[in-house]
Amino acid sequence: MPLSKLKFRPGINRDRTDLAQTGGWYDGNMVRFRDGYPEKIGGWQAETITPYVGEATKLFVYSVDTGAEIAGLATTKKIYIRAGTLLFDITPIRVTYTTSTTPSTDNCFTTNTTAGTEGQVLVTLASHGAETGDFVTFTGATAVGGITAPQLNLEFEVTVLGGNTFTIQTAGTATGVATGGGTSITAAFQINIGADTSVAGYGWSAGTWSRGVWGGSSVTPAIVNVRLVFMDNFNNDLIFNLNDEGAIYYWTYENTFSNRAVLLSSLTGAIAVPAGTEKTLFAPSGHLLALGASAYSETSTAGATISSITSATTTATVTTGSAHGLSTNDYVYLFGQTTTAYSGTYQITVTSTTTFTYTLLAATTSPASVAGSYQAIDYTGGTYDPMLIRFADVNADIGPKPEVWRPELANSAGFLFVKEGSRIITGANVRQETLIWTDTSLSTLQFLGTAEVFGLQLLSSDTNIMGANAYASVNNNVYWMGTDNFFIYDGRVNVLKCPLLRYIFEDINRQQAQLVYGGTNKEFNEVIWFYCSGGATPSLTIDRYVVYNYRDDIWYYGQLNRTTWIDAGSNTFPLATSGGYIYSHENGPNDGQPLGAAPLAISSYIESAFMDIDEGQFYMLTKRVIPDVDFTASQTVNPVTGATLVPAVDMSIAVTKFPGAETQTTDVAGATLTRGVTTATGTIDQYTNQVFIRARGRQMNFKISSNTVGTQWQLGDSRVDAKPAGMRG
């Protein structure tokens, strides 16, 4: 017989048997298709030096006005800013204790001399509120029990023993049992860490932090969700929130990266900021959205009299008849004053237990002839509603005011409700609209520019999404992974036909659905989803991916741990996170290891479905293959050692007598029978003209694979020398 081209349909199909998929590809890993031909994907290089702590769940890149590119990186334990190759910890501080607070930090350290734990220090702080794994930073401590001051004045991860005690592990060695540390200790606790994975359970700590009675047991099963963080930028600054009714935080860019993020509600002028939300993002109109949010509420304390009000230009000073109990940035409503310019609602700065100041709308120097009264106003007591959307103000002249959430006639802050579903899952911007997913529906939020500000329109009442990050936007279209299908929104909601549907959704670990992360690789027309595999032992970390090539309308998949992904844009390469590092992808042919370690090979392969001759009534005999493989972009020199590299792939042909299952258990004793598959393999490099591969069987498949450093390959139209070799029953 003449030579036959080994030409296959692009993409991988696993929803049919391998023989039924004759003429197509059936399996692969670390492979994509370019113009219909398979090739090994590009490699990656570590972009950061010091590893981050926790599992990364969000990577957000933006440019500041200097042109510099920075990235917000959120993990289950910390929040970072990435600048160049460095990571800066901006995790918010939950609470700071000193010797003057309750509890006091006065001499809170106790050392011990127990063998093997001489560096461990017991810390006693009543009702400290920390959880095991939280981080605390001490300053101002003095030596105690042989542990030096520099060994104490550091950041530590705590191990909680009880509500009043925890331990830290120092680098010192105690010389005796002692209690001390001095009377000038400051203990700054970072916000509580989150879960690395979603866990179902009963009992103490089951459920979301701050829900229910502290220390109480749950009566019904609770899902402790993995901690997700959602990010967006406001000019140079970063805004983010924690999921599951989490608070909203604000980080100010100062080009030093030494400052930590603070609560948005703590900013000057902040008013009625939602106490908790599921997700924040800026709408195309500039309004900061809170999807699933604590409702707006306004409660006031009983009125209290004012002794006097004086002023200096625009600063008014209030003296109260007794201790006011207020805090800086609180709001008060002043009424009954003469002059009336002193009356109104103002944000205050506390100057003493009986005085506070606020800024007048216009300058005056005359004291109030009638001081009147005041009421403290609380805007944070609203009940959380999982179907509520709130939006902050946008000023027509100065633009977005993400700190102003109180609806007024003079601003555009407000709220509305999603009607279809029981809770908002996530949202994403596309064109000039914001898509809002609930657990059962998809709606579009559009800016109207009227008194209503926004309009909400239902797009589908039969749509869902696997997780809050399971979508990606490209070319004004949004793609997402649902709980049992893939979807596209291009002005309408449509289901994507996927030949891997059963293979993916029967394998995914649904308990870790929140970890699913979608992204794009626009250079190759790809939408990619990373997920945790299921099976007999479900993975608790991301280990798989599936790709949709939207130009060619084909699918393929593989195995790779990437917990976040962001496409190339202002960054030269796509960026992703794994194992403590940020990696730039499509950057060389290798697995670029961190810290300057030698690169590793990326194991890749593509395998065809089985095919036969003349409906399978003839055996076939293969004799040789004439390869067509391109090694462009391969490395011929090891970038670390300088050794010569010879890029190569293995080409193999497998034959079998019958298309039965590859392995099947048939007897009671559990003996496993394996079908007779014979594989013949030859190594192909750029100088190989032909390779002699001799194999005989009823069905045949074709495979190309590589596992060598420096190899980058693309398969063309190889040819095989095969002929009928008799009939067999």
Outline the structure in words.
The structure is a single chain. The chain is mainly β. The protein folds into four domains: 4-27 and 601-727, no CATH class; 94-190, Elongation Factor Tu (Ef-tu), domain 3 (Beta Barrel); 229-291 and 391-523; 299-378, Elongation Factor Tu (Ef-tu), domain 3. The protein is built from two helices and 66 strands. The strands form 17 sheets. Strands 28, 29, 30, 31, 32, 33, 34 and 35 form an eight-stranded antiparallel beta sheet that branches. A hairpin with a 3-residue loop joins strand 46 (486-489) and strand 47 (493-496). The longest helix is centred in the last third of the chain and has 5 residues, at 501-505.
Structural key phrases:
single chain, 729 residues, mainly beta, Elongation Factor Tu (Ef-tu), domain 3, 4 domains, 8-stranded antiparallel β-sheet, 7-stranded mixed β-sheet, 2 helices, 1% helix
Low-confidence stretches: 202-220, 661-676
Write down the domain tally. Answer: 4
Strand fraction equals: 35-45%
SS-based structural class?
A: mainly beta
Mean pLDDT: 90
The backbone outline, from C-alpha atoms, is globular
Give the helix tally. 2
The radius of gyration over CA amounts to 32 Å
Largest sheet: 8 strands, antiparallel
- End-to-end separation: 23 Å
What is the helix fraction of residues, given as a range?
Answer: under 10%
Number of strands: 66
